[in-house]
Amino acid sequence: MFQLKYKELPYGITCIESWYQSEGIACCYLLESNGQFALIDTGTARTTPLIMALLEEHSISKEQVQYIIPTHVHLDHAGGAGQLMAELPQAQLVIHPFGARHMIDPSKLQAGVITVYGEEAFNQQFDELLPIPEERVIEMEDGMLLNLNGRTLYLIDTPGHARHHLTVWDEQSKGLFTGDVFGNGYPELHSSNGRYLMPVTSPVQLDPPVWHQSIDKLLSFHPERVFLTHYGMLENPKEHAEQLHRDLDAYVDIALSLNSENRYENLLEQITNYHLKNIQKHGCDISKQDLDRLIAPDLVLCAQGLEVWLHKQEKA
Ligand SMILES: [Zn+2]
User: Fold this and answer.
1) Of the candidates 207, 238, 269, which is a domain's last residue?
2) Is 247 found in the same domain as 299?
3) Which of 206, 238, 270 is where one domain is finished?
4) How close is the Cα of 162 to the center of ligand 1, in Å?
């Protein structure tokens, strides 16, 4: 049903199209080091056959994949982890400690996702989450090093978008695999001012102050590039960090300015207007239809996550 699409990047990195929602929305990465491989993010279960087809096309045996590293347990990043682990006998799953139990027993995670997306959308976009044997799971710690056959991967705790979010620092590419913590930036959404990035404040563990700290923590590595799950390689990430900070502050200002009546609808409207204005200012030349396809689902997640965050603030 979905076609294998990928792009060879420098530094032994392959960017694989995940076919999440539509083309160009989400990807995952295959890293090579002296005949051993790691996957960072997995896409959904629908992505697994494509990853297996890529391995076959490149004559990579199933035994050569050493690590599967979802940046966090949102399903566009980890939904295919169970299926991949079942296919790849030598692989170990590397995951944030707050995400580990959801990979070992995914029943609660699956129920939670159905609550957010609804049963129909779940069945359309995802497949059943498969449990992963506990003995094949490595819980990361902040600063932990993984040795991918001579290539060092450094694991960084980066909460904010979610408490269970990690980022991978790859010394060889001077690059960070940032999952969702460095925002979403679709290649189609660009102008002579560069790519347009936006933080997506998905439910249910959003923590804006902590997210700010994680962005600064990532910059302390002096990355020359980031590898976004949404989407692809982005050079000179430092230039984008200030805007991500400003966006998060703007979201919080909007959220705190609203009263409880129709709050979700107002959040969605105001955050949509905020980005439409900024995208226009950025000078992006894109049709309304393409813009909708790219960011409308993200804007819904932004409003949902902020609504949940506000609710928690009120309860605290
Ligand atoms: Zn996420």
Assistant:
1) 238
2) yes
3) 238
4) 7
CATH, residue 202: 3.60.15.10
How far does the centroid of ligand 1 lie from the alpha carbon of residue 60, in Å?
A: 29
Q: Ligand 1 centre from 35 Cα, in Å?
A: 30
How many structural domains are present in the chain?
Answer: 2
Do 228 and 262 lie in a common domain? no
Same domain, residue pair 223 and 294: no
**315 CA to middle of ligand 1, Å?**
24
Give the per-residue SS3 of the chain: CCCCCEEEECCCEEEEECCCCCCCCCEEEEEEECCEEEEECCCCHHHHHHHHHHHHHCCCCHHHEEEEECCCCCHHHHCCHHHHHHHCCCCEEEECHHHHHHHHCCHHHHHHHHHHHCHHHHHHHCCCCCCCCHHHEEECCCCCEEEECCEEEEEEECCCCCCCCEEEEEHHHCEEEEECCCCECCCCCEECCEECCECCCCCCCCCHHHHHHHHHHHHCCCCCEEEECCCEEEECCHHHHHHHHHHHHHHHHHHHHCCCCCHHHHHHHHHHHHHHHHHHHHCCCCCHHHHHHHHHHHHHHHHHHHHHHHHHHHHC
* Tens digit of each residue's pLDDT, the chain (316 residues): 689 999 999 999 999 999 999 999 999 999 999 999 999 999 999 999 999 999 999 999 999 999 999 999 999 999 999 999 999 999 999 999 999 999 999 999 999 889 878 899 898 889 899 999 999 999 999 999 999 999 999 999 999 999 999 999 999 999 999 999 999 999 999 999 999 999 999 999 999 999 999 999 999 999 999 999 999 999 999 999 999 999 999 999 999 999 989 999 999 999 999 999 999 999 999 999 999 999 999 999 999 999 999 999 999 8
Instruction: Please give the distance, rounded to the nearest whole angstrom, from the Cα atom of residue 204 to the centre of ligand 1.
Output: 10
